[in-house]
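W.,

You were right to be curious about this one. When I first looked at the sequence I had no strong expectations either way, so I just let the prediction run and decided to look at it fresh. Below is the sequence, 828 residues in total, followed by the output.
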Amino acid sequence: MAGDATLVHPEQWPQAASPLPPDPAIESRIHALLTKMSVEDKVGQMIQADIKYVTPDDVRQYRLGSILAGGNSKPPGQPYPIATQWQALSDAFYRASMDTSRGGLAIPVLFGIDAVHGHNNLVGSTLFPQNSALGATRDPQLIHDIGEVTAQELRASGISWTFAPTLTVPQDVRWGRSYEGYSQNPALVAQYAAAVIGGLEGKAGTPQFLDTGHVIATAKHFLGDGGTHDGKDQGDARISEATLRDIHAAGYAPAIKAGVQVVMVSFSSWNGVKMAGNTSLITGVLKERMGFDGIVLGDWNAHGQVPGCANEDCAAAYNAGLDMLEAPDSWKGLYKNTLAEVKAGVIPMSRVDDAVTRILRVKMRLGMFEAGLPSANPLAAKSAQVIGSPSHRDVARRAVRESLVLLKNNQAVLPIDPRKRILVAGDGADNISKQNGGWTLTWQGTGLTNANFPGATSIWAGLQAQVKSAGGIAELSVEGEYKQKPDVAIVVFGEDPYAEFQGDLPNLAYRPGNDHDLDLIRKLRGQGVPVVAVFLTGRPLWMNREINAADAFVVAWLPGSEGEGIADVLLRTGDGHVAHDFHGKLAYAWPRNALQIPVAAAAKGERPQFPYGFGLTYADSQKTGTLSEEPGLVLSSAQAGVYFTRGKPAQDFVVSLTGANGAVTNVVATPAVTADGSLHISALDYKAQEDARSLSWSGTGNGVASVELVAPAPLDVDRETNGDVLLVATLRVDTVSPGDTSTIGIGCGAGCSGQVTVGPQLAALPKAQWLKVGIPLKCFRDAGANMSKVDRPFQWSSHAGTQIAITDVSLSTVADRTLTCPTHGDKP
């Protein structure tokens, strides 16, 4: 781009200032402490390490100023921790920071965590709808209340800092983090910024501000993360300064005026310049023009992407204005190199003192020097009564009710009489993990069951309770089967959980090439059953076929732990009244086809399918006409990382068999067999007729036969590999040969493949049971595969005596069993 595309004019940006005037007592105390601190003490304050890679003893030795718990980081040995386990860990780190037996000064350590839709790292907590749902409520007071509840549950677990709110303004919902943004509308984001920060921190200037019931908030990600080219996570926002200022920075001045204490800088770039190294925006705009006087924090090793930097060494980020670098696993090297650079003058002492002053200011505003152990907080002492309390869950249930958006209600099928016979179907109906989405107990929100959410209510459980109370009959069947014809069916379906770039999409088609949910709706409608579709999603997607197929279509977003909020709106009361009407209005426009990016389309004068602000109520009599079912592209499942689905290869993929004698057979129809009879493939039924394939290895000797999926063109899955994505096969192990040496591999051109031996782990799986079995893509890369040139995304080789069945092969983060990286096969 032109050379001036990265120039910043701070005088053209909005002015702001902290609502907290300088406190002479605090500033004097900071100055006195600074004069006593060694260079080592100061550098330690400027580094944040992750609890997976740092111990209390490390904090004691290096005088680190902060720790964090990343999405998959928990107290040792506690994958799904409860409040007392978080308290114990917080206490241990606090004690270490106050221990001066090895020298240094007693400065309490800050503990931060991603509590982005409630305290989502805590078992039994209240989980709210994700932000894209909250945008539909148009209710700033609700947003304030959610912040307040989140703060209380954080404090009850011994944690006093959240990496929230996200103030991004997503302009392209192909971006996998879109659900973290409240809206495409900067005005709504700005309004919510002040509301949520007031809830989390308390009102600035009052005794409640940062008291024992509130926490430090973090405005993120500064700046432009929602405006990257093609919606790529950590990508480049190729936009003007005016667009960056007026759209993407809209929430920051209100956040600063509300008293936010931390701003986190984005991974992304603006016109090719990494934000973590952008002095003009961090220092010139944020600190000087907007008057921000708190901590400017880097994102997870984001400084390592600044040119000339590495995760362990980045003076440029500090010099650009970052006060604290998030160095989860690289903190020790960063400490060593930063210390040397400060002593050498590469990082000026004035910059160090400014950073440490800001860090100490926030700690003192929080009252950390007087607070004592985190477990001594009054809310921590009664954590069992605070976390997931009925009043907290009431706020979340209200948020569910207010966020639902009604796109269609033909024949007035809604509201439903709960005294009728109601079928509830779809894989989202009784799946609390799915209704929560990412950033829920784990980073990606996957690998969980309903048992991991004590106190929560699935959508099915909420519907069942109200129908039973009214005297009706509710029946759950994921696949829509029933013994007696229902009066109405509610089909709950949608996106599986994801976070970060693993949710990035090439287009807005919903599960391209996989029509399972559409077929379920059409099947029930074809049987004369009225259907209400309830869609679980973090963002608008092209759903015209599903909307046409259903009588009513409800966008439930990612509603969180209180699924009964959906029953509150969909069902009448037992006496026939409407207790809760639809309230939600779209905070994001809905696409007309799978290629339309609504915000960009609107700029060109094109109309979306449903505009920003659309949302029906029960009073609306308008009918939704038949929508165009032309997607604008070929709906190939390969676009979504799906290679084999419902027993058939993805479009233009080929199933190929290689016999023990090396002869290759392309499967045109099943049954099929290799020329030497060593491998047979036949059809079988899994959930529908012939929706799976059975593979049987036979013959004698040690010859190896294999089956593979051949892609029509090489696939680049390098980014997914770096992001811990799995190759997942939905399979059934029937028999394995003694001493099985089966391998699963990925091919990448002539002479290139990565094979991993899985036989022993397959042998340990339960027999004759369908499971989603995943292998990290990193296993194949480590075994020699070039993940940017994958032409055979799935290969299975085995000997006589093995029999398996497969229905699906895809990339995913969801698996029933994840195999550890097994012993690598030979690298060809």
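Here's what jumped out at me. The chain has 26 helices and 32 strands. And, maybe more interesting for your project: The CA atoms of residues 422 and 474 lie 5 Å apart.

Coffee later to discuss?

I.
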